[in-house]
Each structure stands twice: as structure tokens, then as C-alpha cells.
Design brief:
Layout (H helix, E strand, L loop, with lengths): L6 E3 L5 H12 L4 E5 L4 E2 L8 H5 L4 E5 L7 H10 L4 E5 L16 H13 L4 E7 L12 H6 L1 E4 L5 E2 L4 H13 L6 E5 L5 E2 H12 L4 E4 L2 H10 L4 H10 L1 H5 L8 H6 L6 H10 L6
Parallel strand pairs: 1-2, 1-4, 2-3, 4-5, 5-6, 6-9, 7-11
Antiparallel strand pairs: 8-10
Helix pairs in contact: 1-6, 7-12, 8-9
Length: 282
């Protein structure tokens, strides 16, 4: 691929997108960082922003908008602009009907996006990451870390948390190297951890007492509503946590090793690196 054409990164301000942008630029690749706010305006719901984002692009990282089916028409537009390669951000568990309750209607959109990528005629790669380790440092578990208590309805369940840096490394490789076309990479960390183990690791690297407090789903929903969240949204959050509670995200995947030829980073390695960078919430 000619280096004169930029690589388009949608969702460029998100957990994986901004890391992909950083890695691509560190390697000397021209990047068009696209998001609703930031360097290059891009809005999935505003089709008038699509052409400007795609013009002259050779490869694109697609971070879809949950609950929508915009990827198929977007890829048709991309092909018309001469895009040759696409990497899709998907998720683990989409082909497992027992993975979690889909109360927000996200699954249909994700399945349609994967089908659209495979049928696009482009060189395609699909990434299916599990739970991000960064959910504890900059995601929806960060408030619990800040408060010193992870109050969650997840029992003694475990998950194989994956470092977003590994996700970004796989995406970057698929965007810039040969050998990844037609691959679906399921991404996980190297081991499944309970929330008790996660809290202990964070406590060790931060020097703060962080503890996991298991609560019932009803109690969790009630606490979210008490903090101002609408009941439907609170129940949806509880459904999102089902894979942790039911151990359906505890299995290990080999995508990082297949894509990069190395094992994924451990949660402890992620936690130490985050502490060294001053990234833990206080």
C-alpha cells in the first residue's frame, strides 16, 4: 500500500482508537483521526461527514456505533472511494446466545457489521476483544476504584481482561501489514481473574486499599437509580455485567498471539504500567 494515502481511524478518541492513532503515527503512517469532536469531524449519524473522511484513504479502522447498521452503507462508500483494507472492532460472545442479555439491541447491528465486512470485497480483519482492562482505569469501573470499592453484581465470576494496548497493536498490524486478511481475532488476556483478584492487584500497584464488594443485581440497579440513572439504563448496565457474573467471558482466546506472535500482557503488567504513567483514578 502506498504510504501517501492516510489511514482512517474512526472512534479516534475512544479507548482503542486513540491508541491506534498513536501507534500508527509512531510508525510514520499518515493518519486521519476521525470522531465527532477532535481533529477530523466524523459522525456515524451524519452521512454528509463520510465522504470527507474517506477521501484518499487506503485503509480504515471501523469502530461502529452500538445499536446501528451504518457499517454496510459506509463500506459501500469506502469501496467507491478506493479503500482497500478494513479492520472492524467487534466483540467476543456475539455468536454465543447465552453470553449476555441484549437489552439494548446491540447484537443485530454487530452481526450485520461483521457480515458487511466479510461481503465488502475489501481486505478485511475482524477484532473481537473481551473485557478491557482499562475499564478499571478509565471506564465504567473507574469510579469504584476511585471510591475504593468495586460494588458489582458479579459474584465470584471471572473474566480474561485484555489490555487495550494489545488491542491497538493487533489493529495496527492488521491495518499496515500483510497476512491478516480474512482473519477473525478473538482477543483476551492470558488468564481469567475474579474481581477480588483484580482489586488486590490494583491495591498492590497503587498503594491504596481497593476491595470488591459483591452485591445483588437488584441492589446494583437500585444504587444506579439512586444516583440518577433511569431504570432502563440501570437494568441495561446490569445485563452488560452478565458475562462476568456467569463466567462466559472467562475463557482464553489466542488472537493476540496469532496476530502478533507474542502472548498478551497480563493484568498485573497493565496495572503496573498504568501506575507508572499516573493513570489510576484517585
Amino acid at each position: 500500500m502506498s504510504e501517501q494515502h492516510p489511514i482512517l481511524v474512526t472512534g479516534a478518541t475512544g479507548k482503542s482508537g486513540r491508541r491506534v492513532v498513536t501507534r500508527l503515527r509512531a510508525q510514520g503512517h499518515p493518519v486521519r483521526a476521525a470522531a465527532r469532536t477532535g481533529e477530523h469531524p466524523f459522525d456515524w449519524t451524519d452521512h454528509t461527514t463520510w465522504d470527507a473522511a474517506l477521501r484518499g484513504v487506503r485503509a480504515v479502522y471501523v469502530v461502529q456505533l452500538d445499536g446501528t447498521k451504518f457499517v454496510r452503507p459506509f463500506l459501500e462508500r469506502a469501496a467507491a472511494h478506493g479503500v482497500r483494507r478494513v479492520v472492524l472492532a467487534s466483540g467476543r460472545g456475539i455468536d454465543n446466545p447465552d453470553y449476555a442479555t441484549d437489552s439494548n439491541g446491540v447484537l443485530d447491528g454487530v452481526l450485520d457489521s461483521e457480515a458487511a465486512v466479510r461481503e465488502s470485497g475489501l481486505e478485511w480483519t475482524i477484532n473481537r476483544p473481551g473485557w478491557f482492562a482499562q475499564n478499571f482505569s478509565e471506564g465504567f469501573f473507574a469510579d469504584g476504584v476511585r471510591a475504593g470499592e468495586l460494588r458489582l453484581p458479579t459474584g465470584d465470576g471471572a473474566a480474561s481482561f485484555v489490555d487495550a494496548e494489545d488491542i491497538a497493536a493487533v489493529v495496527t498490524a492488521a491495518l499496515t501489514e500483510d497476512g491478516h486478511a480474512g482473519q477473525t481475532y478473538e482477543l483476551s488476556g492470558p488468564a481469567a481473574l475474579t474481581l477480588t483478584e483484580v482489586a488486590a492487584t490494583i491495591s498492590e500497584v497503587t498503594g491504596r486499599a481497593i476491595r470488591y464488594v459483591p452485591i445483588t443485581t437488584d441492589h446494583y440497579v437500585g444504587e444506579l437509580v439512586q444516583h440518577g440513572l433511569p431504570l432502563a439504563d440501570a437494568e441495561a448496565f446490569a445485563h452488560v455485567l452478565e458475562p462476568l457474573r456467569n463466567n462466559t467471558d472467562a475463557y482464553l482466546s489466542d488472537g493476540v498471539h496469532r496476530a502478533l506472535g507474542r502472548p498478551p500482557r497480563t493484568f498485573a503488567e497493565f496495572a503496573k504500567a498504568t501506575a507508572a504513567a499516573g493513570g489510576w483514578p484517585t
